[in-house]
Amino acid sequence: MRVLGIETSCDETGIALYDSERGLLADALFSQIDLHRVYGGVVPELASRDHVKRMVPLMREVFAKAGLQPGEVDAVAYTAGPGLVGALLVGGAFARALAFAWGVPALGVHHMEGHLLAPCLEEHPPEFPFVALLVSGGHTQLVRVDGIGQYQLLGESLDDAAGEAFDKTAKLMGLPYPGGPEIARLAEQGRPGAFVFPRPMTDRPGLTFSFSGLKTAVLTAWQACSREGEPDQQTLADIALGFETAVVETLTIKCRRALKQTGLKRLVIAGGVSANHRLRQQLESMTAELKGNVFYARPAYCTDNGAMIAYAGCQRLLAGQQDEGGIETRARWPM
Ligand code: KG4
Ligand code: ZN
What Pfam families has UniProt attached to this entry (predicted)? Predict the structure, then answer.
């Protein structure tokens, strides 16, 4: 089965072709980061308009890369939510129009299911069952995964998502959007222990997260430093490292708990924050200690992309899911 996947939930237009026999055939991505950077975050209206502009050229690009004619597919999968409604509608309307013209089914895919399954596109995919840590700009969740569509939520954030905490913290430090990669880059020059921030909710049992207090702790430290004048580059790097370490340790503690609680040995990390090197390293050592393994996607498939949607759509269709007709889009949608 060959599926065209379309991702437009936020500020990345991603289109890809996945073949159940041959794997990923081609993918193309346009990131709107430069468009939104001047505003310090994503402007929904601008995002929708830009998705409209990119759709046709990117679709043509993936078919050309794969050596196929537009339309040589068995289905079209698109991100139906969660995300920005205007942006989702662009992808949904485009997918449905293509499917109608080509006489194939269209299927709405859950964005977080796309992220969750992205590591399955790699050379050594995880086998079911596993525990997944989903860490993106909008979600922080621990999920027990027993198969396609068999997801049990173990814990999630009460407030900010991990990626959101990176972005908001970066913003208050005067760093550009998106904050995750900026903080990670700065933290490389940071001195360990110069700033120590709380590890929220690790002192009580359970798998719930909360990241908004951590952002406030950074703000307090930042304001204290700023009173003596503009903080220098070293202070910036020290704060970045203190913040990143606090997030990574918190996530690691909860992942360890989730593995112990479920008795599972395989951990999958997915979503934009799973591109973070420090997080990957810490989870490598933690799972090695437990004689388990951690799986993640290449950096380009940690953040939003079309490949994960093509893959997830293909798995759903192979599992017998039907085209429900109509353009399904949902700003909020539990997985
Ligand atoms: O999955 P994603 O591309 O979009 C959503 O579904 O939200 O995740 C984007 C998030 C942003 O908050 C961004 O700052 C964060 O992922 N991010 C990172 C890194 N790369 C992206 N956070 C920490 N370290 C990184 N290297
Ligand atoms: Zn995402």
Answer: TsaD
